[in-house]
Amino acid sequence: MSFEKDDNVVLTDKHSDFNGEVGTVTQTMESMFGDVTYTVSFEDGQETGIPEEDLEAADGVAGEDDDEN
């Protein structure tokens, strides 16, 4: 699954300070080899160079902007 700018994602990297946190994709970068990495902003900072396999869609996670009536 690829992600686009402004998508809400969950970082799944046990070596990161932001592991398990929900953030927003702020930038996507593609290497000359076709690999895509992401920059994700979190409440307390940001992390760059995140590979796609370390991200999951944050569907239904509290804090997302849902349409409320």
Instruction: Give the integer mean of the pLDDT values.
Output: 88
What is the topology, as strand order, of the major beta sheet?
4-3-2-1-5
Radius of gyration from CA coordinates: 12 Å
| Helical content class | under 10%
Compute the number of strand runs: 5
Shape: globular
- Point out poorly predicted stretches: 62-69
Q: How many angstroms separate the termini?
A: 31 Å
Helix-strand pattern, N to C?
EEEEE
What structural class results from the helix and strand content? mainly beta
Percent in strands = 35-45%
Q: Major sheet: size, sense and barrel closure? A: 5 strands, antiparallel
What is the count of DSSP helices, taking H or I runs of 4+ residues?
Answer: 0
Number of domains: 1
Topology:
Blueprint lengths: L7 E4 L10 E9 L5 E7 L2 E7 L3 E3 L12
Antiparallel strand pairs: 1-2, 1-5, 2-3, 3-4
